[in-house]
Amino acid sequence: MLQMAKFTSGAYPSNGEAKVDMGSVPTFSGLTKEELMQYSNDPFWIRLRWFLFILFWLGWIAMLVVAIVIIVQAPACKAKETLEWVQESAMMDYDLNNVEDIDNSGTSTPEDMVQMAKELGVTTVYMKNLINPFNFEDINPEYINKQVEDFLK
């Protein structure tokens, strides 16, 4: 079908505008019910409908099976990691030059630090420069005294 286009412009077209009149365009409204009923009992369309129906359910079941397989084969959660001794609680810094008298005995002793650590729930005491960084078997000379050795024991 050949369509003719008609270009029109008003008496005074603004900005060079032009209108295109295409006439009436036929619309497709589909098949009527009577036309569709002619195909409903056709063997080709019956087989096609059954094929698509079965294909749909096979695809649905296949996706269900794949989802179950993915869930079953997924790796289990890792076991909860145990904490290292340095992660269990806070550390307390032990300073030889500044030991507080916790038991109010008049003298500050390493036992005062132990008592303070127990009261605070601290399980680790850090002694700055306790060992020589170049030889781990050498203890810093300022820590070599009877009180500190007893404290370390």
Automatic annotation (TrEMBL):
Q: What's the protein name?
A: Solute carrier family 3 member 2 N-terminal domain-containing protein
Q: Which organism is it from?
A: Halocaridina rubra
Tell me a Gene Ontology molecular-function term this record carries: L-leucine transmembrane transporter activity
- InterPro entries from the entry? SLC3A2, SLC3A2_N
Residue spans crossing the bilayer: 50-72
**Solute carrier family 3 member 2 N-terminal domain span:** 18-91
Keyword DNA damage tagged: no
Q: Does the keyword Transmembrane helix apply?
A: yes
List, in alphabetical order, the GO biological process terms annotated in this UniProt record.
L-alanine import across plasma membrane; L-leucine import across plasma membrane; phenylalanine transport
* Pfam families, A to Z: SLC3A2_N (PF16028)
Q: Which keywords are on file for this protein? A: Membrane, Transmembrane, Transmembrane helix
- Going by the entry's taxonomy, the superkingdom of the source organism is recorded as Eukaryota
GO CC, alphabetical: apical plasma membrane; basolateral plasma membrane
